[in-house]
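so my prof wants the structure for this chain in the tokens format not the other one, which i didnt know existed until like an hour ago. anyway here's the sequence
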Amino acid sequence: MLIAIAGSIAVIAYFYPKVPPLNTALFDYSQNAVIYDRNDQPYQNLQGEENRQTLMSEQIPENVKNAFIAIEDKRFYDHPGVDIFGVLRAVREVISNQNLNGSGGSTITQQLIKLTHLTSEKTIQRKFDEWVLALQLEQVYSKDQILTSYLNKVNFHGSEGIQAASRQYFGKNIEELNLGQIAILAAVPNSPSYFDPYTYDETNEIRRNENGQIILNPNNQTRALNVINEMQDQGYIIQDEAEAARQIIKTNPGLVVNNPNKTYSYFTDAVYYSLVNDIQEALNMSEDEAVKYINTTGLKIYSTVDPTVQTALEQASLNDNLFPGQSENAVIVSEATGETYLPEVGATIINNEDGGVVGIVGGRNEKTSLSLNRATSQFQVGSSTKPLTTYGPALEEKIITLASIFNDEPININGWQPQNSELTFIGPTTVRNALKESINTIAVQVNQKLGIPKSMEYAQKLGLTISEGDNNSAALALGGYVEGQSTEQMASAYSTFARNGDYIAPYLYYEVQDNNGAIIVSHNPTKEKVFSPETSFLITDVLKQASNGGTTTINVNGTEIAGKTGTIDNQLNAWYCGYSPTYSMAVWYGYDTGSVNVNGTEYPLNIGIFGGDKPGPAALFENVFNTIEVNTKTKTFTKPSTIVQYPEGPTLIPDGSSSEYYIKGTEPNNQKSTSSSNTNNSSSSGTNISNGFKNSSGNNSSLESNNSSN
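here's what i got, hopefully its the right format
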């Protein structure tokens, strides 16, 4: 006996000094952030160091805790961290097998220590370390804390922790699982690859039966049934519960394939970059600190994304029929460089009610996470700026009405001579017709009458990027901005008309909570009145015509659509910005680079289409809206009671007349146009007539500057 005691003391004296210290900080697990959609359903995980979402003890059902105790450590509540019976069993296995392989007699506490503090090497020192640290842990953590930490840490062959495993294998949160499904998960950690719930064929594809159901791995099934047997034997469940669970395991486990998508959607990309900036500001962190905080602390991001809208956008971006083919120059440079140059897309959709972004797509090619996002990149917008920075503001300031007459003729502003399509002019026409047909000379004249400072003021109210070089009509009337605008900015600006003139800055999430539920950052959208409901309706009324035989035709079943096309100089890129009562969307088409140099020759890469062409931006808009508008409730725009129609009366050009809307109390007079051509710093003036009239030009597009189109 004395010899045995002396030997034990010697062993302890040898191994104990080498035991590492217990570090409770290692139980603060790295966990990925989860993005939820606008319906509070999980949408996508941000990639952290491990695929994990930790839970608090009260969030873990008792059946889950009991299942793991029953199969992994039935004396969990009785031992001090090390189960002497398990140790003796492990010693017998070592002596019998003449090696250190075997179960090891590990308790849940020991397993937790091994997962957090130690390696998997098979040595006596490592096992001694495990015993000592397990005993120490039970002195500072309660049994419930240990079990919760274990369930949040343990590996499930692709997921870390019980919640991530529940989402992966069943597509549900852990509290939604039935007892049979809980047993299937409890079977995994003993040997995650051997007890993986999925069964794989020779090509490593997950096997399904003739009904399309995923086949449960027989190895897992056997152990899961054993879990139920142990739970029943240990008194955790009764006979009826056990039998129901067995039937589920044998016949209908309900497995799904819900592996974490390791490639972010374009929406997730945008959320990530927005969150990095917001976290830096909110918590006074550096960029590196903010990134680590996002990727490791289990944030819950309640986003504005609508999965139906996002999916419709993504599917449309993959539909080659909605895009023009490569331009001749794109074919040449693709062959010469070995790099494929394709027409690209950027698009954003806004929910008009709350101003949140519900969908983003930023390209056509196979995506990688955090890649170039053309939806949030900036491009010149062409004529799509006209309602925002020229006609809308001029109506709001009562400088014009839709019935005002301007003369479409050559103009000269300090040597700048904006042109129309094919260098044609139609003479006197109304503002309504000028906007509907996107006549450049009249947009410039109206912008000049409005005044550059006032136009810039409205642009800034609508969230547009205004640079020092944008204080001119080339930018504010024809969209030739120095830095350009993004589809996110344009969709949000256009949603102002659908919202009766209230602008809401675009945002991607409502709030972000830490793992304890505390709100870290939030967006509380506020409305800023930019246009009156009357101005918004008048612009919408014209843009309905512009999208129904004006510069394009958009057909969306059962829903009114208003919108404006835009095309840049030499058809460099093309836009369509449109909206229904429910959604607003801006679409950009173009190449990623304006030109490519091949062997000393510069090849321009122009999209070569107008914004209203099909295939083109208008086609993608039409495709997406026919999908997302199916279940919307509001199908028509509301006319304010202050808007009335002026009766039929004399028109300047007798080509057929239609009554014009106007704001009650501002009845247009019947004066004929007195405008005339002016040069240098002036432009044609406008007066009012009684009504508008049908398009008299037959012209389907107009130039945005000297060489651009509508």
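also thought this was worth mentioning. DSSP finds 22 helices and 21 strands in the chain.
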